[in-house]
Amino acid sequence: MKLLxxxxxxxxxxxxxxxxxxxxxxxxGVTPTLAVVLVGDFAxxxxxxxxxxxxGDGVGIASRDFIYPDGLSRPxxxxxxxxxxxxxxxxxxxxxxxxxAGFDEDAAIAAIxxxxxxxxxxPQNLGRLLAGSPTVLPCTPAGCLEILDHYGAELTGAEAVxxxxxxxxxxxxxxxxxxxxxxxxxxxxxxxxLAAHTRRADVLCVAAxxxxxITGPMVKAGAWVVDVGINRLETGKLVGDVDFDSASQRAxxxxxxxxxxxxxxxxxxxxxxxAAARRQxxx
Length: 283
Ligand code: GUN
Known about the structure:
alpha/beta, Rossmann fold, 11 strands, globular, binds guanine
């Protein structure tokens, strides 16, 4: 069994991003800048944003934080996004999801200028992904592919099973695997006999948000297993959606939690921010 070390792959990518940032600054004098908008008080979002800030500092990408723990009116959020869209010193806008109840997430995402949408969630960017000509890839799915590629997974012709159909991970990940010529099955909460699907998977990606839902007997011998889940148990332990102990007995390769997909998401976000800055500066 091979352990897929997302932390190491993320470090490699962050090194490349740092080099790209230095190069862009030398050529244009501009520091790529990411605006982070957080509305509400969701614990996981705060962790994500703190990690992003630290990683951004490490590669020379500037952050501007717009944090509203007690909420923000819908018109005020629109005004903020409009001003960030219009600000040439801001190259990427990260609107942290989920938004608190009462917000229309679709409308808020659509209000971000597509060229500054470093998450790849804007309908225009999702449409380009579906059409097969993406400019920006959603961070977590792109991170999953990057890990599989780094360790040499063969995707063409492979049976790929994705568990979870969220906009952030499952749906775009299925598209990315399809674009790489895998035969893709997208499973979800209403799937009948989940195990019958997962047991056929050469590549099994799990983003369901349910700790330990995939156990050893549900894994094909020798499969590549990518665990996108991050769940904090009552004991304080961080675990994925895959029961690592039993699944790693059968998998050929598997990502740990923590240290698997998690670090990749932020590396891809910073890579997307650098790319967005380059496009906006035509540099
Ligand atoms: N919430 C959970 N993951 C993400 C992400 O990748 N981007 C944003 N904007 N919100 C998230």
